[in-house]
TrEMBL record:
It comes from SAR92 clade bacterium. GO terms for molecular function: metallodipeptidase activity. InterPro entries: Metal_Hydrolase, Pept_M19. Pfam families: Peptidase_M19. This is Membrane dipeptidase. One of its GO terms (biological process) is proteolysis.
């Protein structure tokens, strides 16, 4: 396994500080898509972007923003961690399609159309009825395509996801989820969705979040790599990457915020246990960014060729972002 292998994480939600930036930089991960909004409105999102701007100033020796795919390679060259801004919900744009361009100008490059619930744009995976992409959603997809913002359907329901793939002029991403054939969680994706991602030249990022793994926290690296191999056979080696969904340095109240936001006055326990008020424990082979090399070695041990390991660990995301962040290239 090459020590200079490009490594990109398609999704993390970390309560960042300088020590965690140091650990990420030391790990060899070159770029991370970071969540900067779940349920926040536009003002709260601007506050979060302002906080990140201070991070870039105060930790300029460790991190840098990624606005174009070329910035990923520059981060690798400089030995820094590239940071891609993303939303796990569409709440920051509120009811105004013009916010897409404004937020893109502020560095946002990825946005989910829904987070578990019905949004203004699409249906979330926890709803009983899936109405698909809304009228507003169609306009937002068109605007995201125009400016170069990736459509992410990780937390969206099936009909909405398939319609987004069909409507979008660019390939979409599922940045952090696993196949339902591996583990039948509500947020994992069916064979139909996986094949649609493959046929449309989209991307699937495999998640290490325990509730999306077979046997949860006890999932083995061997089983995880077998899942990747089976998915590669189904949709192609060029369509897959890692989106670890790594969550670090948060208390349980933050987990409640992720699930419940402001839409309920009670606690939505989601896929977690209501009896254990804590974050789920990570599998032993992936506790943090420092374990990315373990995943690469696991793929190698499973029989993946070196070139294919490199694709899964980062090269596929780079190719996808080269097309997605550009203002010119669209899906044929």
């Amino acid at each position: 396994m090459r020590k200079d292998m490009l490594m990109i994480d398609g999704l993390q939600y970390v309560n960042w500080n300088r020590q965690l930036f140091k650990e990420a930089q030391k790990s060899g991960v070159h770029t991370i898509h970071v969540t900067i909004a779940y349920w926040e409105n536009i003002r709260e999102t601007l506050e979060n972007i302002g906080t990140w701007n201070r991070h870039f100033i105060n930790n300029s020796d460790l991190i840098m923003p990624v606005h174009q795919a070329a910035d990923i390679l520059e981060a690798q060259r400089l030995g820094k961690v590239g940071i891609i801004f993303g939303f796990q919900n569409c709440s920051p744009i509120e009811d105004d399609v013009k916010m897409v361009e404004i937020l893109h100008q502020l560095g946002v490059r990825i946005m989910q159309l829904s987070y578990n619930n019905q949004s203004f744009l699409a249906t979330g995976c926890y709803e009983e009825q899936d109405g698909g992409i809304t009228r507003f959603g169609r306009q937002v997809i068109k605007e995201m395509n125009r400016v170069g913002m990736v459509i992410d359907m990780s937390h969206s329901a099936e009909k909405s996801t398939l319609e987004a793939i069909d409507i979008s002029e660019r390939p979409i991403a599922i940045t952090h989820a696993n196949p339902s054939f591996f583990h039948n969680a509500l947020r994992n994706k069916s064979d139909t969705v996986l094949r649609a991602i493959g046929e449309s030249e989209g991307m699937l990022g495999f998640s290490m979040y325990p509730f999306h793994l077979k046997n949860g926290s006890d999932c083995t690296l061997e089983d995880f790599c077998m899942m990747i191999a089976q998915t590669a056979e189904m949709i192609g080696i060029d369509r897959i990457g890692i989106g670890s969904d790594l969550c670090l340095n948060w208390d349980y109240k933050t987990l409640e915020w992720m699930r419940s936001g402001r839409w309920t006055t009670s606690v939505d326990h989601g896929e977690g246990s209501a009896d254990k008020l804590s974050w789920p424990e990570q599998p032993v082979w992936f506790k943090g960014a420092e374990d990315f090399h373990k995943v690469a070695k696991g793929l190698e041990d499973h029989g993946f060729k070196e070139v294919d390991v490199a694709k899964v660990m980062g090269r596929n995301w780079l190719s996808f972002f080269e097309k997605s962040f550009s203002g010119s290239l669209i899906k044929s």
